[in-house]
Specification:
Chains A, B: Keywords: Isomerase, tRNA processing. Two copies of one chain form a homodimer. In chain A, strands 1, 2, 3, 4, 5, 6, 7, 8, 9 and 10 form a ten-stranded mixed β-sheet that branches. With about 260 residues, chain A is of the alpha+beta class. Helix content of chain A is about 25%, strand content about 30%. The interface of A and B includes residues 56, 76, 85, 122 and 125 of A.
Chain lengths: ~260, ~260
């Protein structure tokens, strides 16, 4: 028995998110089916991030166990022959059997993209949120700076969460603009339910001038979802990568969060 | 009666090209319907470039005549309310009644995008062609340089064309790479049927090493479609802009091509 770690990229447009849901097309279901057919055994992947309906990924992580003798590096190429164009495995490597992609400490990076121009550009519509008000990027950058560090992000978490410890660390949160696209890039040790989309929604409100950048300090302190901005649409969000450092991977250093 | 010039952007993925075709969804049909409903009169646009099925546009041009009193600049905003997300009018201005978008001289710019990496990235698949062989960008740039200028592009034209004069001028043809995306950007005074896609297909073959860059000189001289490379897929192609200079527009300086 070997455990294989996959990096998985997908266009979330046509999927009801990552997680298996009876009667719905999900990335997990598509992966399980393709891997099971390829390896001729029942495969059930464990995903690192159960992305929401419509969210995209360039590097989500999933693991599964197999008795197959296919060299681990070849699995990505072989399974891609059986996957649709909107889900492709980027790499496959063997890892210790104890490795669990949600329990081992990691750094996750997401990007949230905003198309900021007068009129919607159709070829950008699937991977950005369209905002026609001219956003103040400097104000968004200032607001972002207050969110970096270890904080209780309760105000930036959907009330639907079942998590009770809402303290997380954001290592970096950058807002940049290139032509008509504003990109919010965030790296942290973990993200609460809808946290990146609520951060994006809040920064968009700051960019519009709905409230001053400093107001996000009070949002953090208040620990109340009603204080932060709206949840920005899913389609602007892409999970870029999940990094496990090798030491954690070998020592099986479980993250209590 | 006024003549209105529109700049039209669209995602060609779900369209059978620009031109009206009974029983098929086309950009022209969608525009005619939305404009007719908005202006409460029968509208029939005349397009500058009848892009093929699957080709995208950021700035195709179309004109139509109207008796409506809506200020010309407001038409774009108003018609966008009635257009789907994958077709949006970027601007609308009044122009002389004599202006015909295919007869007045213009400069057209297209981009052809190639995703050049080991494994397909789903979020890029709709607007690029995926090539997993590592392409030699320098060789592609050299090959491109031989195509710049006034030439008989018969070898770079679909045999299905009805055009007899196959001389065209390419003002610039640049190949650049940024991360995994190779962009071929070409500006000319007009393009033959499939010309940009055949240029792209030929440059891809050069990039693969199938033949040396110098070979495109012979392709031009031979005036035979069989000499040039294959027609690259439609989805990698985007019509970026069409520029009419004001002098031509006012003097109604008809292009004989």
């Amino acid at each position: 028995m070997r455990r294989i770690k996959l990096e998985v990229a997908y266009d979330g447009t046509n999927y009801c998110g990552w997680q298996l849901q009876s009667g719905h097309l999900t990335v997990e279901a598509v992966l399980n089916k393709a891997l099971s057919e390829l390896l001729k055994e029942e495969v059930a992947v464990i995903g690192a991030s159960r992305t929401d309906s419509g969210v995209h990924a360039k590097g989500n992580v999933a693991v599964f166990d197999t008795n197959s003798l296919i060299p681990s590096e070849k699995i990505s190429y072989a399974v891609n022959q059986r996957l649709p164009e909107d889900v492709k495995v980027q790499s496959s490597v063997e890892i210790p059997l104890e490795f669990h992609p949600r329990r081992v400490k990691s750094k996750k990076t997401y990007e949230y993209c905003i198309l900021n121009r007068n009129i919607l550009l159709p070829t950008e519509r699937l991977y950005t949120t369209f905002i026609y008000n001219d956003l103040d990027v400097k104000a968004m950058q200032e607001a972002a700076s207050y969110l970096v560090g270890e904080h209780d992000f309760k105000s930036f978490c959907s009330v639907k969460t079942q998590v009770t410890d809402t303290v997380r660390t954001i290592y970096s949160l950058e807002v940049s603009k290139k032509k008509d696209i504003i990109t919010i890039r965030v790296t942290g040790n973990g993200f609460l339910y809808n946290m990146v989309r609520i951060i994006a929604g809040t920064l968009i409100e700051v960019g519009r001038g709905a409230y001053p950048p400093q107001k996000v300090k009070g949002m953090l302190e208040g620990c109340d979802r009603n204080l932060a901005g709206p949840t920005a649409p899913a389609k602007g969000l892409t999970l870029i990568k999940i990094e496990y450092d090798e030491e954690n991977l070998l020592n099986n250093n479980y993250d209590i969060k």
